[in-house]
Amino acid sequence: MAMMGSRLRLEILSDQATGLGATYRYWGTMMGLTIDFSESVTKYVPPREKVWHTIGEPRLVIIAFYEMRVAVESRSPSSSRLTISIAYELPRSGFWRIVGLVLAGSYSRWCLRGMCQDTRRVLEASSTVRA
């Protein structure tokens, strides 16, 4: 439901696919509307922290520019604390700004929940491999 029938393609714009400076372009459609945005990794401290944000003029629907952060803090040999955050701007134009006001909070929470679940799966799989 939250992706509303979107189909996005990914293009890696940088020489490296991961790490500091990695840059990606996503484009496609959502509900028949064109989406086209690029993002770049601005901080990368594996396996503890990653920060990335949109660059250029993103064509998004619910939010405009954003910055996301994922941090994993080891608490003990068997537990970690995961922090995921998003800071975003609403679209500037009248109609899309109203759409953003109505949907941006729930959309960003949906994104963060999905990232938490995905990160947890990766961390649990990597701890199982090491055990």
Domain module tally: 1
The overall pLDDT average reads 88
Order of helices and strands: EEEEEEH
CATH class: Alpha Beta
- The helical percent reads 25-40%
The CATH topology is given as Alpha-D-Glucose-1,6-Bisphosphate, Chain A, domain 4
Which second-level CATH architecture applies? 2-Layer Sandwich
Major beta sheet, strand line-up: 1-2-3-4-5-6
N-to-C span: 37 Å
Compact summary:
This protein has 131 residues and is an alpha+beta fold. 28% of the residues lie in helices and 45% in strands.
Description of the molecule:
The chain is built from one helix and six strands. With 131 residues, the chain is an alpha+beta fold. It has one domain (7-130): Alpha-D-Glucose-1,6-Bisphosphate, Chain A, domain 4, CATH 3.30.530. It has a six-stranded antiparallel β-sheet, with helices on one face. The longest helix is centred in the C-terminal third of the chain and has 37 residues, at 94-130. The model has no long low-confidence stretch (mean pLDDT 88).
What's the SSE blueprint?
Elements: E1 7-12, E2 23-30, E3 33-45, E4 49-59, E5 66-76, E6 79-88, H1 94-130
Antiparallel strand pairs: 1-2, 2-3, 3-4, 4-5, 5-6
